[in-house]
Amino acid sequence: MEEVEQEYFSQIKSQFDIIYPRLVTLYPNAHCELNYQNAFQLLAATILSAQCTDERVNMTTPALFANYPNPQALSEAQPEELESIIRSCGFYRNKARSLLGMSKMLVQDFSGQVPDTMAELIRLPGVARKTANVVLGNALGKNEGIPVDTHVIRLVARIGLSSQITPEKIEQDLMHISPREEWAMVSHRLIWHGRRVCNARKPLCEQCTLAPDCPTGRQILNLK
DNA sequence: ATCCCGAGGG
DNA sequence: CCCTCTGGAT
Predict the structure, then answer these.
(1) How far is the CA of A149 from the C1' of B6 (A)?
(2) Which residues form the HhH-GPD domain (predicted)?
């Protein structure tokens, strides 16, 4: 359609085609680092993961699922008891409210099952596109979108995979320039690189194989 | 002081 | 668009 738009997509796609194969080499087996056994557990763990490390969530969920093994049990939890279990994950009042509201809706509107569409998932309290995409892409094997978290935002901005750094635009752009069957792995590999190399505070550009093709890496290393 | 696989409300 | 919610790690 618009020539400017075509030019824009061809530019970020060529950048993606340079960067992504290297991420595949670096992290062939990247995966969700939250521990879970089913969609309900991943949904709950992902709600807990907001502004919290996966490691801490994984320390919390064993007690959570022991006490509340399914949506029915979680929906009947005492708020104070639930809050005390999840407290160390932070935002514990909001998260407890989300877990309760989410599980109550699962029981009332979805016969105790986690729905498998974006439209239904984002109706759940405390669930928006990012959480829905994690559950869809990992526990349900459906790529309806791409989970965009703080790592994905940071790497897309540094590497230059989108011009407008908002979660919505980043997700649209990544969906546009990557094959659908890769969407879950695109997110995982960006996140793995973000955690291991492209840190928020001090990116390790000198040991990053992407640096020569990364605007931020070139700038920090004083290349070209 | 800054950041961690966000979401809801004003 | 902004703000708030929170504990833990560095």
Answers:
(1) 8
(2) 48-196
Q: CA angle at residue A123 from A118 to A124, to 5 degrees?
A: 105
Nearest DNA or RNA nucleotide to A50 (CA to C1'): B6
* Matching CATH number, A39-139, of 3.90.1150.200, 1.10.340.30, 1.20.140.10, 2.110.10.10: 1.10.340.30
Q: Cα A80–A84–A90 angle (5° rounding)?
A: 115
The topology (CATH level 3) of A3-30+146-221 is Endonuclease Iii, domain 2 (1.10.1670)
- The per-residue pLDDT for range A209-223, each reduced to its tens digit, is 999 999 999 999 998
Residue A188 scores a pLDDT above 90: yes
pTM for this model (two decimals)? 0.94
Instruction: Please give the pLDDT value at position A4.
Output: 85
